[in-house]
Amino acid sequence: MYLAPLNYDRFFKKVFSDLFIAQAFLEDFLQVSINSIELLDNTKRLTDQAAAVEFDFRVKIGDQFVIIDMQQWYKPDVAQRFFLYHALNSGLQLETLPQKKLIMDQASGKVKEIKDYRRLEPVTTLVWMVDDSLGFDLDYAAYRLMPHTVLDFLTTDRLWKAPQMKTLLEKRLKVIQDLENDHKGMSFLGQNSLTFMFQKNIIKSDKLQRYKDWFIFAQKTKNRENTKADFKDFETHEVFSKIIERIKQSTLTSSDIQYIEDEDELTQEIQRWEKSVSQDSWRSGQEVGRREGKAVGREEGKAVGREEGREEGALTNAREAIIDVLDIKYGHIPKEVIEMVHLVTEISVLKSIHKAAIQSDSLDDFRLLAASLAKPPDHTVLAD
């Protein structure tokens, strides 16, 4: 190993604590020029009862607050988790938000003071997804608040079926007016963004993005057998040469080495679990390790004991294996898909559906294939 894995939290934080490196990444990904950048405290306790929240990286760029979080391991709550982080990054500004003096209260004769929320600044949250693409085939997926008229404009079928283009153009003009409405600072809402960046998609993309090299570099460091030759093209780069110096094996402590070994062991544990799901879950009465115990809790999940040879046990295990694969790949599983899986009563059909779950490129592809395999009588819950 020449370089430590950049995708591991400890080394990500070590690299990005250098503001020169952090600024270069943000400029490349956000396609902006940054005049000033300030490293902020990344550990906060919101209330006496709340547990501490720790961001991987948090800075202020000019008049905007930015956080970056590295997400390597599977978690089923990424949407809610990072929306909360996104909201907290706004809420933490209360610590430094200036007071605003108001007119004297006539009843008490005292001057009232309240927070001046007009001074709240936009927030950008970037989530670096290492292995999960959340069902997207894009480099990244960005979410912003927008007027409901924009969403209605895109999703109203009747409008798009209108025979006259004039109707569309008039509606588009109205939507643009809504987007540009800055009455009482309403444009502030659209300046906040929550973006998921997908490493596995970016490294395969044929686009000439400014940010692609960052993810290619990170991907190369994932290989424990990486060598100096793997980074020949990066050694003379002003920014990447600094990254190399920060995570070279020669700079690592014994604690760093143990940390890598622990993370590698977890990776192998997850891979063993995934292999058991895809290859061994069809054995009658086999115990299937539960995903949450393996991937999230980092402890061996409790196996669900099934009496060997019992048909019902085999069916149950097969159904669980299908749901687990879908949950890992796509996160959200529609209720009708779960219902379909539980309606299938033949192990051979479930095995074919499980294979389809592993090989599918999208949830929609799986739904269509699974429906054709299951063919439940008078069952139409999969229809869109």
If strands are numbered along the chain, what order do they take across the biggest sheet? Answer: 1-4-5-8-10-9
Runs in which pLDDT lies below 50 for 5 or more consecutive residues are 280-310, 376-384
Q: What structural class is derived from the secondary structure elements?
A: alpha+beta
Order of helices and strands: HHEEEEEHEEEEHHHEHHHHHHHHH
Helix content: 40-55%
Rg over CA atoms, rounded to whole Å, is: 25 Å
Write down the overall mean pLDDT: 78
Number of strands: 10
Instruction: Note the beta-strand portion.
Output: 5-15%
| Main β-sheet description | 6 strands, mixed
Shape, principal axes of CA atoms: globular
Q: How many domains in all?
A: 2
Report the span from N to C terminus.
Answer: 50 Å
Total number of helices: 15
Describe the 3D structure.
By secondary structure, this protein is of the alpha+beta class. It folds into 2 domains: 9-145 and 192-252, no CATH class; 257-374, no CATH class. The chain contains 15 helices and 10 strands. The protein has helices at residues 9-16, 19-30, 78-91, 148-155, 157-160, 165-179, 199-202, 212-222, 240-247, 254-280, 291-296, 311-330, 335-343, 347-359, 363-374, and strands spanning 37-39, 43-44, 53-54, 57-61, 64-71, 99-104, 111-115, 123-129, 140-144, 193-198. A 6-stranded mixed beta sheet has the order 1-4-5-8-10-9, with helices on both faces. A hairpin with an 8-residue loop joins β2 (43-44) and β3. α12 packs parallel to α14 (347-359). The chain starts with 8 loop residues before the first helix and ends in a 10-residue tail after the last helix. Mean pLDDT is 78; it is low at 280-310 and 376-384.
